[in-house]
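User: quick one, sequence for these tokens?
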């Protein structure tokens, strides 16, 4: 094993001393991989788990390129929450001790804007903030980003989840085009790739702690009686306990029946089929992606174009009649270098189709009996429930308005509120399942953006 000391990097002797005083003797893996790129001034997309030392990676980069004599914002760090902004600012201040008088200012919601304006007027070198408040300052022209050299997007995946990404794009546009952009994210889902790549120029990509070097899909085939198809599906879900799963049926009727069956069994299952109108479809997809539903039962047609990153399991409740469709279904798991599992049920009348799938795979299917019921755990419920608010972009609602109202007058904690999706007409907010029902009567009566909004819990 090699150890990486900071002393090989082009850092000042005072910074090396400072790091030693902080107890940072060797670089963490993400620091070792990203710091050479960052210090060179190149754009970077870094994927690493929390707790891996990302802050010091970009913090040392920011400070390296900073001119302490110029009292204007030269670096901007955008974070998803106030707490994370404070944590980042604290770490930056510790790192900045080596560089003399460096002012790090946080601009986040929850605090009043006036003292922030005063601090900005006094000058600051580094700004750390949340998208909503940063945009407010930009709109009031109390924040000037024209001298920013380094733009950091921290926990980008969470900002996407919270619906902040359009705001982030707007903030990036307020920075000079010629700048260094660093993006940090625990995951790098396909849904943000395109947006993200507009923000960076020829980025280097680093990733640490990859479990699998390439896509791995485990396929298992189970021999069943046609009459036990739905029970078998529930049994396999209880046996493997996937965090979420996409279950394929060949007809709309089977989708509806299976999702009802799984719901009765205690899963947070929903059906998606071709007869649904756009709003119902949106309702279902949002609930699946914000962790309010963990089992989506779909037909091939309905699943077409579905963009669900990192799906841990696909179940073929009924085998696809065309082996290529089978391959498509299976390919929905194990994306983006994650491992996936594909389970297929096979009744006697499906043996012909199964043989064609085996041909396509180039190996025998090795039909297995179902796991024994004693081996199975309890049905898993999704951790969240979705609050539907009958007001969206047209009513000028923004994620921060909803988050503010729910955690303010609504009395919820930040942790009890999950992903927020806002469409033109409606908004979806994931709430912790443990509190959603008891909190609902109170939530119904709070003002959001000065007005009571009609809402309901989806399930
Ligand atoms: P992340 O942003 O990746 O979640 P942080 O930047 O918050 O991680 O760092 C996690 C913890 O590791 C912090 O307590 C930080 O002080 C510590 N840390 C970071 N880099 C080093 C290092 N090189 N050596 C020792 N501790 C470190
Ligand atoms: Mg961090």
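Assistant:
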């Amino acid at each position: 094993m090699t150890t990486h000391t900071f002393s090989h990097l082009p850092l000042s002797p005072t910074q090396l001393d400072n790091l030693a005083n902080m107890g940072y003797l060797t670089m963490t893996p993400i620091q070792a991989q990203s710091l050479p790129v960052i210090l060179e001034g190149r754009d970077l997309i870094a994927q690493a788990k929390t707790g891996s030392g990302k802050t010091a990676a970009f913090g040392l980069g920011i400070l390296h390129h900073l001119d302490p004599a110029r009292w204007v914002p030269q670096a901007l760090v955008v974070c998803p929450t106030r707490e994370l902004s404070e944590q980042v600012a604290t770490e930056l201040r510790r790192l900045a001790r080596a560089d003399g008088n460096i002012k790090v200012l946080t601009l986040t919601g929850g605090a009043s804007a006036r003292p922030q304006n005063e601090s900005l007027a006094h000058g600051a070198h580094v700004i750390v903030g949340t998208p909503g408040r940063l945009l407010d300052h930009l709109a009031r022209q109390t924040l000037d980003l024209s001298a920013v050299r380094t733009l950091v997007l921290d926990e980008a995946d969470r900002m996407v989840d919270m619906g902040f990404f359009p705001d982030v794009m707007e903030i990036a546009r307020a920075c000079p085009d010629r700048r260094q952009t660093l993006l940090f994210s625990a995951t790098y889902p396909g849904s943000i790739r395109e947006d993200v790549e507009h923000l960076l120029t020829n980025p280097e990509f680093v990733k640490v702690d990859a479990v699998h070097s390439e896509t791995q899909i485990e396929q298992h085939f189970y021999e069943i009686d046609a009459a036990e198809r739905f029970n078998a599906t529930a049994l396999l879900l209880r046996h493997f306990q996937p965090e979420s799963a996409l279950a394929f049926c060949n007809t709309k009727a089977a989708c509806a029946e299976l999702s009802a069956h799984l719901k009765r069994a205690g899963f947070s299952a929903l059906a998606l089929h071709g007869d649904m109108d756009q709003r119902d479809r949106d309702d279902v997809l949002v609930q699946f992606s914000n962790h309010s539903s963990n089992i989506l039962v779909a037909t091939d047609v309905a699943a077409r174009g579905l963009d669900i990153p990192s799906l841990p399991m696909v179940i073929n409740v009924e085998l696809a009649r065309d082996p290529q469709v089978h391959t498509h279904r299976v390919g929905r798991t194990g994306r983006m270098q994650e491992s996936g599992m594909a389970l297929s049920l096979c009744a006697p009348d499906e043996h012909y189709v199964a043989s064609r799938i085996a041909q396509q795979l180039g190996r025998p299917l090795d039909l297995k009996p179902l796991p024994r019921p004693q081996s199975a755990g309890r049905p898993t419920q999704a951790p969240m429930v979705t609050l539907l608010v009958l007001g969206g972009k047209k009513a000028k609602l923004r994620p921060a308005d909803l988050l503010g109202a729910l955690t303010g007058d609504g009395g919820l904690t930040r942790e009890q509120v999950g992903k927020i999706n806002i469409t033109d007409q409606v908004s979806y907010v994931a709430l912790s399942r443990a509190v959603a029902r008891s909190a609902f009567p109170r939530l119904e009566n709070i003002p959001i953006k000065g007005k009571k909004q009609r809402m309901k819990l989806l399930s």
